Amino acid sequence: MAGLVLAILNALVKPVLVFFSFPLVLFTLGGFLILINALLFYLTFKIVPGLHIQGFLPAVWGSLVVSGISLFFGLGRKASGKPQVRLHKTGPPGPKSPRSEEVEPIDI
């Protein structure tokens, strides 16, 4: 339930907050996005019954952990958001073969 609420807040509320706070985001070189994520994390805990958070600072730490995990799992993705696999055609092992060529990446 909390994941769904956080996803909805990230999809609907976060773009509005980022749009209106763009000068602050730009001035802090993206640092203000941490506070926006923490605010959404905090709101998620206030909306979902049964979940409790003890203040805004734990929400900041929680949002940093969630952002770190998302970054880790998103490292294998290219700009389009799809995982990317590269295959290379090569000849037999040994010196570089003239047949060696790179194949287009496969989107999964």
Written account of the structure:
This protein is mainly alpha-helical and 108 residues long. It folds into two domains: 2-75, no CATH class; 78-108, no CATH class. It contains five helices and four strands. It has helices at residues 2-12, 14-20, 22-27, 32-47, 56-74, and strands at 84-85, 88-89, 101-102, 106-107. The chain has a two-stranded antiparallel sheet with strand order 1-4. A two-stranded antiparallel ribbon has the order 2-3. Helix 1 (2-12) crosses helix 4. The radius of gyration is 21 Å and the shape is elongated. The relative contact order is 0.10.
Entry summary:
By secondary structure, this protein is mainly alpha-helical. It has helices at 2-12, 14-20, 22-27, 32-47, 56-74; strands at residues 84-85, 88-89, 101-102, 106-107. It has 2 domains: 2-75, no CATH class; 78-108, no CATH class.
Count of individual beta strands:
4
Strand content bin: 5-15%
Percentage of residues assigned to helices: 40-55%
Average predicted confidence as pLDDT: 79
SSE topology string: HHHHHEEEE
| Rg, Cα atoms, Å | 21 Å
Q: Can you list the strand order of the major beta sheet?
A: 1-4
- Domain tally: 2
Overall 3D geometry? Answer: elongated
Q: Which class of secondary structure composition applies to the elements?
A: mainly alpha
Distance between the termini: 28 Å
Q: For the report, how would you describe the main beta sheet?
A: 2 strands, antiparallel
Instruction: Provide the low-confidence segments as ranges.
Output: none
Q: How many helices in DSSP terms?
A: 5
